[in-house]
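Sample pair:
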Amino acid sequence: MANAQTASLTARLQLPQNSDLEMKVVARQGSHYAELSQLFAGIPRADYAIIVSAAHPTKFPRRQTIFFAGDAIKDIVLLTEGSVKITQLGENGSAVILRLEGPGEIVGSLGSAQRSRHSSTAEALLPCRALVWNAPTFDALSQRFPLLQRNTMRIMAKRLQVLEGRFREISTERVAPRLARELVRLLPQVGRRVDGALEINLSREELAQMTATTLFTVSRLLSSWEKQGILSLRREVVVVRSPLGLMGISELK
């Protein structure tokens, strides 16, 4: 049973490797990630090539704001490298992290630039690369390729499902398994392989925002898990050394 669990986890943690490729090959790298993206599920290769060729490669430096809540939707951004956090501000001005986006995922809202505005703010957590479509161009492609429109709706439905699940966890579960489960979810999404370990570039404050708890509680739990050898901590980085250890904590009742 232990071997089966290990094999299952290993399969789930096949993370994309960061690279130092020059900008001239980002389009090819982007095509690879686009092919793996839910946005292109079921789309024939010839149609997929047409859609991807209409995008242009773009870089976003670390901590750059890609768009603010309230901005008109001018572009559709498919992340090919790095990670982005999506946030909203509460009435008291405090930020809430709704989700993180990793390679192969669409950053932010999907809608027409003429009708829609972003409901959240997107900020690059790491240096990012992306394929970017002008929103009217993406709308035209969606009309031309119905599967693209179908996949867009599925992505939006999946986001809602994930938010509902997180709300249930916050309402019904203790903080320790909730925090461990969030870290496990983030590993295949935004984790990076570094020296045999898996790094998640998030501060303790950001983890507290994602799990609806306090900075003190997150710091206490992470320090305890560090003593157990499950992870180690650096400034704005959690280094996971035992994913199975985290999985065990996430299953506690």
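Residues 1-31 have pLDDT under 50 and may be disordered.
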